[in-house]
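Appendix B. Raw example, untouched.
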Amino acid sequence: MNRQGNYHRRAGYLTLFMLAFMSVAVAAPAPPAARYAAGADDHNNPDRVDIALVLAVDVSSSIESGERRFQREAYADALSDPRVARMALGGGSGRVAIAYMEWSGTRYQRVHLPIRIMSTPEELAQFAAEILAITDRPNDPMYVQPTAVGDALLAAETAMSALQVPARDYIIDISGDGVLNDGFAISAARDHVLSMGLTVNGLPIEILSGQPQNGSTSFEQVSRFYMDCVIGGPGAFHLVARGFGDVRETLIMKLMLEMARMEPDRKRRIAAAWNGGLIGDEARVIPAVVLQLSPPAEEPRQRSNCGETENVSHNPFRTEH
C-alpha cells in the first residue's frame, strides 16, 4: 500500500469517524487528583468545560518562515472546520477552552492567545481568525533557536493554569518537526505535567524523504521521539503528519479525536490506524471495520534516554549529517 498517497485523500472519511465518535458515550478517565481536578462529574457547575486544550506549536530554527505561516493557516483552518466545531461543542457542557502558543528555545515560549472559553462556532471561528492574524516579528530571535521541548511543556502547563473553571479533560497538544536539543529535561518536564493531571498528545511532523531540513533529525525519528519521550496521560496518543502539507488534515483528525468522549484504548487504536496508513482510499469500509483491522497501539519504548545529557550530541534520536 502506498502510505504517503493515502495521507492526502482522507477528508471524506473524517466525517465517518466523527459519526463514530459521536455515538460513543463512555466517560473519559479522570485525571489524577492534582492541580487540575476533572470536571466530568461536576454537572451542576454551569461554568465547566468539556475540554481544556493548549495548542503548543514549534517555531524553532528548523521551521522556515513559510512553514510557520503554513502551520498557522492549518490551525486556523482546523478550528474553523464544522466537523471540529461539532465535536468541540457537542459534549455535555457545550463549551471548550483553548489556548494557542508557539515555542522554540529555552527562554522562548509565547502565548499568543491565552486560554479562552468558547461555546459557539462563531467564537471558534474568531479564535481561528486571530491565529491567522499572527505574523512574524522582524528579526525575532525566537525563530533561530533550538528545540526545547521540555520547556515548551512547562510553559503550556502555565498557560493551562489560567483556566479558572473545571474541565472533563486537560490536554497539551504539542507539535514539532525536531527532537530535544536544548533546555529542560523532557522526562522531568513530562512527568511534572502528568503529575498535575494533564494529558500530553503529540503531532510530530516528519520531513519526507528527499525534502531538505534545517537540522539533523532523520526521517521517522521525530515520531519515535514523541511516542517514547513526549506523550503521556489518560488516552494519550500521537498522530503523524508526513510533511507540512499533511499538517492541516492530520490536525483536523487530531482535534476531533481529542474532543471525543471515548475509551483511551479506542483513541489509541484509531491513532494507530491513521499512523499506519489504514485510513485512506483503501479503507472503504465503515469505521468499526477499520478499527477491527487496525493494529493495536504500540507500547511505549523504554524511556531511559531521551537525549537528556549536557552534550546534546548524545541524543539517541539525533543523527549528525
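End of appendix B.
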